[in-house]
Automatic annotation (TrEMBL):
Gene3D superfamilies: 3.10.20.30, [2Fe-2S]-binding domain. It holds the Pfam family Fer2_2. One of its GO terms (molecular function) is 2 iron, 2 sulfur cluster binding. Keywords: 2Fe-2S, Iron, Iron-sulfur, Metal-binding. This is Isoquinoline 1-oxidoreductase, alpha subunit/nicotinate dehydrogenase subunit A. It comes from Streptosporangium subroseum. Residues 83-169 form the [2Fe-2S]-binding domain.
Amino acid sequence: MASRKILLNGKRVAAEYQAIGSGDSETSEALLYWLRERFGQQGPRFGCGVSQCGACTVLLDDVPIRSCTRQLHTVDDNAEIRTLDGLSGKRPHPLQREFVELQAGQCAFCANGMIMGSLGWIEGRITAGNHEVPSEAEIEDFLSGATPNGQGNYICRCGTHTRIVAAIRSAAKEMVR
């Protein structure tokens, strides 16, 4: 069996994974299952299985990715992966706190994707020098996949979309300081 070493939520971990073939024809298990089954990460969830809904989103080297279709052999050794499970320390992250305070998640199945995707998007803006609080329109564009990086959409089937936008905007005010 092949193995992979990563930095998971700030902690060095390693585990084997299932791989078939080699080189260009290699396939391996999805990052989502490896994180959930080997390391007990419950934040990323299986939603659609085809990178459409965002429920499985994690940050890979600070970039939001869909872990349901990302094969583990394509993740570099020593890559940094952040999940919702490792987001908060002694206090909830501003995104987590605002999602709770504004009741942005009715069933909360989408919350992992909304929070982790927004985190990567806002941190990416800050890293690029943009310290402006995103407007509601910018947040809606991000969530719909209409942003320049086209990272995909994030779907909430419960209809709490306006509260999700408000929670992201409120948390961004604190994050961009």
